């Protein structure tokens, strides 16, 4: 074999060290290196550097993620709350009794992602209402509970949150594209509100333990138990929401 | 977590590794990765499904880093040679600790451009085309930065080796 048809370029020295040449050219360069100690020294140095870089930094691959990174790694939900809440508010302003979520597409197919979104939107839409946060007031609790149970197809009751300072002010039925949901609204004597959102028609195998999400100032504790999903939402701190969630959970779990 | 979320989560360790080597600082690196992920989600509708997600994420990470660097006044990257920054994943021996400390110190002596090129190719093993795209430069510019970076490292590391030999003698 005579001299290689094309001279070896500096770029090819790098490519050889990085394992990037096609096999035929690779063989030609390898042969050249046998005759060119300076080029061979370059290849050796670059390869040693690559090995050293891996030696120094590969351990980062195994480090546990920080919670900040974990959060950033997940598809943000805020993006899907605001358009839905705005659409629902527009429907409310028109005086329609039920309301429909429009345009809140693209969220993952998980029941729990949808649950959080719906609960948060429901809270965002109804908690600020001064005159009509609820459709049926607490004075008619028996009727309210019977009506919601019938529409959800599962027994529903209004848990007592008095020990946390929250009183039931009433509830409403939500008719979303996803299915019927109950919304019970509570209020403490500082005027702070908390909502219990409940579904009874989730498809199975989505059971979760207590989960917590927070976005746009609204915290949501939620859990799924078979076809039933519950979410406790409010502009409260996590500890208060958890206390309420615990009471509600005890009420609906055997 | 759905399929797409998982695709992105898979890339996080490599993004962290690159950011750590690029900045020389654990906190700065993790902040960079966090910013990168947030921006990736806000631009996710621009990513073509099936195209190279890893390269796309590295591009975003590098753009944020470059913007941050432009905003800060130029100052040399100081790599403190503390226990935390000397990452030893080599067989314990008298020499290896010194080699690693020298590598991180040598990396910090490279210009940002050279360091990025060397790391994207040598550590993250992006192809030359992917690395050039991540840095927003033509292939020729990448090769010249890679070459200068590697030759500089070579000079710095062999100088350090000489120091070690002098000490031993």
Top keywords for this entry?
heterodimer; A: 254 residues; alpha+beta; 7-stranded antiparallel β-sheet; 8 helices; 43% helix; B: 169 residues; mainly alpha; 7 helices; 0% strand; globular
Explain what this protein looks like in three dimensions.
Helices cover 43% and strands 19% of the residues of chain A. By secondary structure, chain A is α+β, with helices and mostly antiparallel strands. In chain A, strands 1-2-3-4-7-6-5 form a 7-stranded antiparallel β-sheet, sandwiched between helices. In chain A, a hairpin with a 2-residue loop joins β2 and β3. The longest helix of chain A is centred in the N-terminal third of the chain and has 21 residues. The N and C termini of chain A lie far apart (84 Å). By secondary structure, chain B is mainly α. Chain B is globular and about 50 Å long. The termini of chain B are far apart. Chains A and B meet through α1, α3 and α4 of A and α1, α2, α4, α5 and α7 of B.
């Amino acid at each position: 074999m005579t001299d290689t048809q094309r001279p070896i370029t500096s770029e090819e020295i790098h490519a050889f060290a990085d394992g990037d040449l096609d096999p035929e050219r690779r063989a030609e360069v390898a042969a050249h290196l046998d005759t060119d100690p300076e080029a061979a020294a370059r290849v050796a140095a670059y390869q040693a550097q690559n090995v050293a870089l891996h030696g120094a930094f590969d351990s980062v691959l195994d480090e546990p993620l920080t919670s900040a990174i974990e959060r950033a790694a997940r598809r943000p939900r805020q993006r899907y709350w605001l358009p839905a809440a705005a659409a629902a508010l527009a429907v409310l302003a028109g005086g329609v009794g039920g309301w429909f979520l429009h345009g809140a597409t693209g969220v993952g197919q998980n029941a729990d992602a949808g649950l959080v979104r719906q609960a948060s939107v429901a809270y965002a839409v109804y908690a600020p209402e001064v005159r009509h946060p609820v459709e049926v007031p607490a004075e008619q609790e028996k009727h309210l509970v019977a009506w919601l149970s019938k529409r959800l197809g599962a027994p529903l009751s209004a848990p007592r949150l008095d020990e946390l300072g929250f009183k039931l002010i009433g509830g409403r039925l939500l008719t979303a594209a996803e299915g019927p949901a109950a919304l019970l609204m509570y209020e403490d004597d500082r005027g702070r509100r908390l909502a219990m959102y409940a579904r009874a028609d989730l498809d199975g195998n989505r059971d979760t333990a207590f989960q917590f999400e927070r976005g746009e100032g609204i915290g949501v504790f939620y859990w799924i138990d078979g076809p039933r999903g519950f979410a406790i939402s409010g502009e409260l701190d996590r500890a208060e929401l958890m206390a309420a969630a615990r009471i509600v959970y005890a009420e609906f779990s055997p | 977590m759905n399929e797409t979320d998982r695709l992105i989560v898979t890339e996080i360790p490599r993004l962290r590794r690159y950011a750590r080597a690029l900045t020389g600082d654990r906190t700065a690196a993790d902040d960079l990765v966090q910013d990168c992920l947030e921006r990736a989600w806000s631009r996710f509708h621009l990513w073509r499904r099936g195209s190279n997600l890893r390269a796309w994420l590295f591009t975003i990470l590098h753009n944020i880093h470059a913007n941050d660097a432009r905003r800060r006044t130029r100052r040399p990257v100081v790599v403190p040679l503390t226990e935390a920054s000397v990452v030893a994943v080599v067989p314990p021996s008298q020499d290896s600790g010194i080699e690693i400390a020298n590598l991180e110190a040598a990396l910090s002596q490279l210009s940002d451009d050279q360091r990025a090129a060397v790391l994207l190719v040598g550590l993250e093993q992006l192809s030359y085309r992917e690395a050039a795209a991540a840095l927003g430069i033509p292939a020729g510019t990448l090769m010249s930065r890679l070459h200068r970076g590697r030759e500089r490292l070579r000079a710095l590391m062999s100088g350090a080796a000489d120091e070690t030999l002098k000490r031993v003698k």
